[in-house]
Every structure is written in C-alpha cells, then in structure tokens.
Specification:
The structure is a single chain. The chain is α/β, with parallel strands linked by helices. It has one domain: Vaccinia Virus protein VP39 (Rossmann fold, 3-Layer(aba) Sandwich). The protein has 10 helices and 13 strands. The strands form 3 sheets. Strands 6-5-4-7-8-13-10 form a 7-stranded mixed β-sheet, sandwiched between helices. Strands 1-2-3-9 form a 4-stranded antiparallel β-sheet, with no helix packed on it. Bound molecules: zinc ion. The site of zinc ion has 8 residues, from loops.
Length: 312
C-alpha cells in the first residue's frame, strides 16, 4: 500500500469520508486480485479508506495499492461478461457520440483517440461514424479482442504508449479517470496529444451528485477499483490547471440490457435483484435495452487552450 498527496492541489491533509471495508491480511497484504478490477466486477461496497482533501475537496482512496501493482493488474484483466454486455455499450456510445459531434463538429476522417478503450467498442462506433479512430488500453486481453475486430488499438497507458503529439482532434476517456493512479498527469498527457483547440471528453462518476449523497456509504460506485471520486467542481478545477477550458459538464447516463441491469442489482441487493432477474429471464426480456440515469455520472467537454500557462 502507498500513501499519496492530493492529486489536485498537492496538499497532505485529509479527513476520512468512508472507512475501509476491506480486511487486511495479517501479513499486511490485501486480498486483491485482477478480477476485482474487471470492468463488470460487482465489488460494490468493498473499498479501501476513502478520504477528502481539506484544502480543495478532492475525494480519493488513500492509502491505496502501489501504482505499479494497479497498472499490472489492469494489464492482466480478462472480462468475458463485458463481451456479453457489448450491446448495451454500443447503444450508450452511439448516444454519447451525438453531443460530442455537436461540439467537435462532423468527423470528416479526423483523428480521435479513446483512452482506456477496453475491447474497443467506442473505437469501432467512432470509426463507423467517420472518425479516424484510435484506442489505447492496458489490458492485453482486451487489446487482443479489439485487434481481432480489426481496430487500431495500442497496448499501454498514456505514460508508456508512443502516440503522435498534437495529432488528435478529440480525446475521450469514458469511465476511466476514476481508475487512474495519477489523473492530473493523464490529463496533461491528453493535452499534449490534442491539437490546439482539440476537444477532451471525460465521463466519470459524481461523488457530489444528489444520488451519491443520498446513498452515502451505500453508493454503489464506492469500490476498490475506483481510486478518484471527482465532482463536477473538482474535475473542472483539475482540467483548468492542465490548460483546458471547460465547455460544459452535465449528467449523462447510459444504456444497459435489462438482464445485465438485474444482474448488477442482484449483486447489490440480492433479495430484490435475484428474483427480479429470474422474472426478466422468464419473460424473455434480458435483451431489452433501458436508459439508466440516476444523475451520478457526468460528462465534461473541455477544449485545449490555444495558449497554455501552467498553474502551480
Ligand atoms: Zn487537494
């Protein structure tokens, strides 16, 4: 485990917001393995200590697994359930593309990079809509899935990958920033990869949303694989420090197939979810897609400034 300072303001002064729910082994190690980091893992309610910076309000996991262990874990992730849920993600990303193109303009074969693209669902949809679409992903398994579909997906992270600078018109990060060990560094790297005036799109969970505040310690997104819990205010502050101008930040939900949704509800509340999943299955409704928006996921659109002055 490692202790880290605030990634937004650098302070080392925090208050515990949610105590750890993970039992440490007597030897000092934790019972984490890569399956807890799989995209569809249902480790709801299981997390290390989550703190809030007294200076800037950023919420994050501290202490946490050593960052090299975290990156190594993502490289090893395999997640066949994600492939089953592909259809829901296709619908979600088709919906995400519309507001993106309203701001970025028509694709016209321009380069777009999806960071943390996993099996490349968004890369594939963006290519279909006319973008010169690239992906970046640490999981070797997921990269193989993507490359198997003929997609241009590079294995690695923003730190390690050899990608062309000032090349991309759009960089997207869908449900990725909350997993990163150094989000500020990642945003700075994304800044370098974008053309001047290029668009960064970040979709993540909102710790300050009404639903998160109502649920408190039972908010389902408090989980081991999430190490940063942004709000619209803290993400906006970090983007501005990295040289971006925030254009908009709004709640944006997603689409799930009913069978998958009930499976997730079952993982969270077995007494309700398991019978409901059974009913949905018997009625043959598992494949029906439903929009889900509890207001606790949001998308930020930010433009790379034409002139950037670094802030301390
Ligand atoms: Zn701070």
């Amino acid at each position: 485990m490692e202790y880290v300072c605030c990634n937004l303001c650098g302070a080392d002064s925090t208050v515990v917001r949610y105590p750890s729910t993970i039992e440490e082994h007597p030897a000092g190690g934790c019972s984490s393995d890569w399956s807890a980091y799989a995209c569809t893992h249902s480790g709801y309610g299981r997390h290390h200590t989550i703190v809030q910076c007294r200076e800037c309000g950023l919420v994050y996991t501290n202490p946490r697994l050593d960052q090299h262990d975290i990156v190594g874990t993502y490289e090893a992730v395999q997640d066949p359930l994600y492939l089953e849920e592909r259809e829901g993600r296709v619908l979600t990303f088709e919906h995400h593309l519309k507001p993106l193109e309203r701001i970025a303009g028509p694709p016209g074969g321009r380069p777009l990079l999806d960071v943390g693209c996993y099996t490349g669902v968004f890369v594939e949809i963006a290519a279909r809509y006319g973008w010169d679409s690239w992906g970046l992903e640490p999981s070797r398994w997921a990269v193989e899935q993507a490359q198997g579909r003929g997609l241009r997906v590079v294995q690695g992270t923003l730190d390690t990958a050899d990608l062309p600078e000032a090349h991309f018109d759009v960089v997207t990060m869908w449900d990725v920033i909350e997993h990163l060990t150094d989000p500020r560094d990642a945003l700075e790297r994304a800044y370098c990869l974008l053309k001047p005036g290029g668009l960064l799109v970040v979709h993540t969970i909102d710790i300050d949303s009404l639903f998160a505040r109502m649920m408190g310690a039972r908010w389902p997104w408090l989980m081991e694989m999430h190490i940063y819990y942004f709000s619209r205010r803290t993400l906006r502050a970090m983007l501005e420090r990295c040289g971006f101008e925030v254009i908009s930040d709004k709640p944006q939900g997603r689409y799930l197939r009913l069978g998958y949704l009930m499976n997730r509800v079952g993982a969270l509340m077995p007494l309700v979810g398991r019978p409901a999943e059974g009913i949905v299955t018997r009625l043959g409704l598992r494949g029906v897609s439903v929009p889900v928006d509890l207001g606790d996921l949001f998308t930020v659109y930010a433009r790379k400034s034409w002139q950037f002055r670094a802030q301390p």
